[in-house]
Design goal:
The chain is built from eight helices and seven strands. By secondary structure, the protein is of the alpha+beta class.
C-alpha cells in the first residue's frame, strides 16, 4: 500500500481513536465513550435531525457526528471525554428519545448502549462497505443528510480525508456538560408527589436543632438552593429542581 494511503488511513484512525475508543481497562469495567442513536424502519433524517438540533439548542451539548449506516438507518454518534458506565449512557439515550421522539415506535429506535439488552445492537464501524447491501456507510455533513432521503448509504467509498475532516470538527462532551444535560432531561416532578406528612413524635428523642431555611437564617437564596441540592434528607425531585434553578 502506498505511503500516502497509509497516512490517510492513519489520520482517520486517529480521529476515531480520539472520539470513540476506550482502553482495555475501561471496557472491562463496562465503561463507554461512544453513544449511538439511530432511526430505522424506515430511516428518517427529519426525525433524527430534530434530535441533532435539540441537543445543541436545548441541552447545550456539542453537535454529535451524523452517519448513514449503509443499510437502513441514520445515526447520531456522541463522544464523551470521560468514559461513562454503559447503564448511564443507555439512560441518556433513552431520555433523549422520551424528549424528542416520544411517538416513535421502540422497534424503530437503535441505541448503543441500550436500556433494553434485548434490543441493543453494536453499531458497525463507519465508514465501511456493508455486505448486506453492497453499499457504504459514512459520516456526513449536516447540510447533506437530507439529500439521502430514505436511502442512508453511498454507492461509492467515501474519501478518507473527507471523513477525517468531518470527525475533526466533533468535540467530545465534557463531564460537566453531560451532567447538566442529564439534569435537564429529567422529567418535571409532579407537585402532588411527596406531600409532607406529619411524623409521630419520638419518645425519649433528643431535641433536633432546626435546619436553616428561608425564614430562619438565610440571607443568600443561592446558598439555600445549594443546601437543598446537597441535603440527602430532601426528596430527590426537590433536589433536582434546586439543581436546575442553579443552572446558568
Amino acid at each position: 500500500m502506498p505511503a500516502a494511503n497509509i497516512a490517510r488511513m492513519s489520520r482517520l484512525d486517529t480521529e476515531q481513536q480520539r472520539l470513540f475508543s476506550t482502553d482495555e481497562h475501561s471496557r472491562s469495567a463496562g465503561l463507554v465513550r461512544r453513544m449511538v442513536l439511530g432511526i430505522s424502519g424506515p430511516a428518517d433524517w427529519p426525525l433524527l435531525g430534530a434530535v441533532w438540533r435539540g441537543v445543541q439548542a436545548d441541552l447545550d451539548l456539542p453537535a454529535p457526528a451524523i452517519a448513514v449506516n449503509g443499510v437502513d438507518a441514520f445515526e447520531l454518534w456522541f463522544s464523551v471525554a470521560d468514559p461513562l458506565p454503559a447503564e448511564t449512557a443507555a439512560s441518556f439515550l433513552d431520555r433523549l428519545c422520551d424528549r424528542y421522539l416520544p411517538d416513535l415506535a421502540a422497534s424503530r429506535r437503535r441505541m448503543s448502549p441500550s436500556p433494553d439488552p434485548g434490543l441493543g445492537t453494536e453499531p458497525e464501524r463507519v465508514p465501511q462497505l456493508r455486505a448486506e447491501t453492497g453499499r457504504w456507510s459514512a459520516f456526513v455533513a449536516p447540510d447533506l443528510a437530507a439529500v439521502f432521503g430514505d436511502d442512508p448509504s453511498l454507492d461509492i467509498p467515501p474519501g478518507e480525508d473527507a471523513q477525517a475532516d468531518l470527525l475533526s470538527r466533533i468535540r467530545p462532551v465534557t463531564r460537566a456538560e453531560f451532567q447538566i444535560a442529564m439534569a435537564r432531561l429529567m422529567p418535571e416532578p409532579s407537585p402532588f408527589l411527596h406531600e409532607p406528612v406529619a411524623a409521630a413524635p419520638l419518645r425519649n428523642a433528643a431535641p433536633i436543632a432546626p435546619r436553616r431555611g428561608p425564614t430562619n437564617g438565610y440571607d443568600d437564596p443561592r446558598q439555600f438552593l445549594l443546601d437543598v441540592m446537597n441535603d440527602a434528607t430532601v426528596s430527590m425531585e426537590l433536589r433536582i429542581q434546586a439543581a436546575k434553578a442553579l443552572l446558568p
